[in-house]
Specification:
341 residues, mainly alpha, Dna Ligase, domain 1, two-stranded antiparallel sheet, 7% strand, elongated
Amino acid sequence: MRLLLRLLLVAALLLGLRLAWILETQAPLRSPDAPALSLVVPPGASAESIGRQLRELGLVRHPLVFRGLVLLRGQGGVLKAGEYQLDGPLSLDQIADLIARGEVVRHDVTFPEGKVLEEMADIADARGIPAGEFLAAARDPSLIRDLDPLASDLEGYLFPDTYDIPGGTNRGAVLVQSMVRRFREVVEPMKADLAAQGLSLREVVTLASVVEKETGRPEERPRIAAVFRNRLDKKMPLQTDPTVIYALRKAGRWDGNIRKKDLGLDSPYNTYRRPGLPPGPIASPGREAILAALHPAEARDLYFVSRNDGSHQFSETLTEHERAVDRYQRSRAGRARNAPS
């Protein structure tokens, strides 16, 4: 009889422990309307240290429970570092799965096409990477020296895309390295075309940066590129406003407006005064702009003018261009220039 009672007591104890374990690991401790919590798991963190964090967040009653859970499930060696957002009434079971799968919160930053280094630095700064740190890395041309020996900085070579924000120290430098690496990935398939056309990468990226600044319409890029390639072939000045804007930026004089006197600015980037391409890229072009510069449309256009709706009217002759300017610009601006735009 006593043996039976002992067996019953042991069974009851085991059942109680089992129920307690289920309660601890599968029943959420927080209400459904509780705010989301952030859990940061450092690299190399032990299950017990993660358990201590979970206890501080009110997600487990004892850190050893979490340690025991991941050991029983064979997850002790697969818990992944990173930041986790714990939203809603998650059980300890669900939290362990989340960390084992590495479903970390992504912090990213997006750089649109056509931005200059200073604008990119401001974007990085808004996402927590100091602008000065970003610019210091972006002004070091060593990352691109093998592709462009003439580069004095990384203008044009920081590829516009979305990037994970790096952790740790020197985040600006790490981000810049990722952007240059992405640029290399994009242009690598184009190297054969560059060699076949006898163009340097610097020339193509410079032209692509001008194309990128001239139009936001993807379908227009090859035709814009054709205008500039045609003008270069005929030894005509490019006469494009974005290069003047870039020259004004470098001179510290850009205030958002181009004035008539600005067209006479003595700068190698002022394509109203200097023939040929500007000496280097004036922004970071995207893939489509680079492809347009490399493969312009088959067109004989030498001019284009804005239609004031984001699109452009293209012309082969100055007479046609003047008529287009009369229609779209002269009545508004009171003057016209014999320029592509």
